[in-house]
Amino acid sequence: MMDFKDYYDVLGVSKDASADDIKKAYRKLARKHHPDINSGATAEAKFKDVNEAYEVLKDPERRAAYDQLGQEPHHGQGGFRPPPGWDSGFSFSDSGPQSDAGFSDFFETLFRRGGHPAGGMGSAPGADSHGRIEITIEDAYQGATRQLSLRSPVVGPDGTVTLQDRTVSVVIPKGIAQGQHIRLAGQGAPGFGPGPTGDLFLEVTFAAHPIYRPDGKDLHLDLPIAPWEAALGGHVVMPTPGGKVDLRIPKNARTGQKMRLKGRGLPGAPAGDVYATLRIVNPEVETAEARAFFEQMAADLAFDPRAEMGG
Amino acid sequence: MKKTKKRGDIVDALSLPDLCRFCQADEAWVIELVDYGVLEPKGRTVAHWHFVGNNIARAKKARRLTRDLGINVAGIALVLDVMEERDAALRRLAQYEKPGG
Q1: Is 80 exceeded by the pLDDT of residue A306?
Q2: 3-state DSSP helix/strand/coil % of chain B, to nearest 5
Q3: Residue B84 and residue A177: Cα distance in Å, rounded?
C-alpha cells in the first residue's frame, strides 16, 4: 500500500498536456526549487517530487502506463495498490533516474526495474551513493555519532527490485565544515559479481543555529552590549562552542565593530575564528530612577548623534 | 533492519580521476571548469592536480546544476559567483535581523 501520486498536479499541467508543455513546466519548476539555488528543507522535497513526476511523464511508455492506472482512489480507501498486470504491454527502457536519492514508494514499485540480476555474469564495482546529512555546529565542534536511515533498492536474483532499509551509525569527524563531504567506504550500492561495493558520500549541512552563523571554519555572532559597556570598555563573558570566554571590549566601542577570537571557531589546522559583531542595546526605561539617569545624560552630555547629517 | 557503525573520513583532497568518480563526470568537463576558474586545483600539471576544500563541493554543485538544469560551464561559473555573493549578502543581512525575526 502506498499513496497515489498525481504527477500532472505536481507539474501543474493538465492530463492532455503535450510533451513540450510538460518539458517547459518541468524546467521552470526545476529552476525554482533546485536545492543548490534555494536553501530550505522544503525545496529539496519539492525538487524531488518534480523530478519524479517528470521522470514518468517525459517517457511516452511510462506516461501511457501511468495514465492507465486511472484516478486517485476515493478517500477512506487507504493507500493505493496497482491492479495486477497494470503494466503489461509496456516496456521501460531504463532502470529509472540516476538521481542521488530514491523516489517515492509509488515510483519505485511501479517504475523501477533492475538493470542486472545479482549474481549474473561479469563484474563491476557498485555505484557510489550520495546524500546529505544535517548536523549542528556543536556536533561539528566536538565530533558526534549520528544515526542515518538509508533506503536503497536491492536487485534480487530474479531481477526484481525491493527497497531495503538499514541504519548506519555515522561518526562525524571533529572539525568538519559546512559543504564538506564525509566518505563511508563500502556503504554505497553493491557491486555486480565479485565487484567491490561503492562508497557513500554525505554532504554536510549545518542546521540553523540560534547564535552562530558559519562561514567555512569561522563562526560569526552578534554580541549585545550595554551602552556603559560600550562607553567604558571592559570584560564581558560571551559564548563560543568550546565554552564561555572573556572578551575585552575597547573603550568607546561602536555598534558593528568586529572582534576576532582567534582559533575559537571550528577545530582544524588551522582552527577557525569566532567573530563577534558588537551591538549596543539600550535598556528599556521603566522606572523613575532609570528615567532620571537618561535625563541627566541628556542634560550633561553634549552629544548629537546626527551631527554628521548636517541637520 | 541491519545496523552498522562506520567512521566517516572527511573528503579532503581528490585527484582528477577521483573527482571525476565523485562527480560522475568526465575529465574534459572538469578541465573546462578549471579553464573557467570555477575550480582551482593545486599542482602544476594535470597529472598532479588535486582538488581541496570547497572545490569539492563546488564541483558537485556544478554537476547537479548541469544535470538538473542543463546549464553549461560558462553559466555555472556565473551562477556560482552570483550565489556566493548572495550568500555573503544573506550573512550580512542576518546581522541586522533578530534571530527568528
Answers
A1: yes
A2: 60, 15, 25
A3: 16
- Answer whether B68 sits within 8 Å of A34, measured CB to CB: yes
Contact of B10 with chain A, judged by CB distance below 8 Å, is answered with yes
Q: How close A310 gets to chain B, by Cα (Å)?
A: 26
User: Rounded to whole angstroms, how far apart are CA atoms B82 and A32?
Assistant: 16
**Residue at B71: amino acid letter:** I
ipTM: 0.77
Put simply, the chain B residues between 45 and 74 with a CB less than 8 A from any chain A CB are 54, 56-57, 60-61, 64-65, 68-70
Chain A residue nearest residue B3, CA to CA: A167
Reported as a single tens digit per residue, the pLDDT across A58-73 is 988 889 888 887 655 5
Best CA proximity match to B9, nearest among B76, B56, B69 = B56
127-156 in chain A: CB under 8 A from chain B? 128, 130, 145
More confident residue, A5 or A250: A250
The per-residue pLDDT for A193 is 77
* Angle made by CA atoms A162, A168, A101, in degrees to the nearest 5: 50
Is 0.80 topped by the overall pTM?
no
Instruction: Kindly indicate the confidence band of residue A188, based on its pLDDT and cuts at 50, 70 and 90.
Output: confident
Which cell goes with B3?
545496523
